[in-house]
Give the backbone structure.
Amino acid sequence: MTSLSEANDDVIRAVEQTGDQISRVKEAIGRLVFGQEQVIERVLITILAGGHGLLVGVPGLAKTRLVHTTGIVLGLFDRRIQFTPDLMPGDIVGSEVLEEGENGRRSFRFIQGPVFCQLLMADEINRASPRTQSALLQAMQERHVTVAGHRHELPRPFHVLATQNPLEQEGTYPLPEAQLDRFLMQIDVNYPDMEAERRMLLETTGDVEATATAVMRDDDVEAAQRLVRRMPVGESVVDAILQLVRSARPEETDNEEVRDTVAWGPGPRASQALMLAVRARALMDGRYAPSVDDVVELADPILRHRMALSFAARAEGTTVSGVIDRLCTPFR
């Protein structure tokens, strides 16, 4: 029978080994995606935590390149779907076709859709109709799809990295709150700084361009995800997560600003997301347990899309990020 100390030693050794792997993963992605260190880190945290990410940014910031490169470096089979208003659920999950065999008998055969992959890029997800969005929602939440009453399991691991363009809103269908809550993290993709953009100009417009190579395999990714769930979490971190998430709910908080400005706050899934994400961030840094600083660092990308402000608060220029930042003040 394994003792507690032996189990802790196993976790420590696994953290050291996996942390080194992830450092090489970050470096490999950074050689092809320039000036987006924080974005790369948060995408990897999302995958290590076993969740899905929503990338928000204007066109031309290498979101597609980031997802494809991440898939190659992590050894995951990736696919991309361009979402459009006429996209149907069958175009994502697949459909059954009627075939006639050599003996003349007819039968249905299921043809898998592009969702049958390990890393799916849902490009401009808010351009699809609510019906199509709901088909992807089932896949994200349950890791399987149902077609004609038959259940089809998706590959493991399975992650969705969806993109939204914040500028062009004509012909879009805003994601419902239930689907937004399925995304572990909202990741803002901003413009690179001048030095990063200079490097991008020089390295992507020549006759030779760098290519990605695998650093991990899908088995390694699953092992890292299991390790994240085994990492210990101190009581101070658990208390910080609970206090922060509950203080963002207008029905449960004594914070006057939240009661006056927040229409609805984050649910329990936000607490779960924070718990997994802070562990994943600690693992990326080679630490054996997360700290309260990890909670503060990840509060905004995890809570922002799970909260909404009242109309009056928006009219006065209040932002969700500003509210979250002030809620984090006691933990700094």
Notes: The two ends are 41 Å apart (CA to CA). The chain has two domains: 1-230, 232-332. Residues 118 and 158 are 4 Å apart (CA to CA).
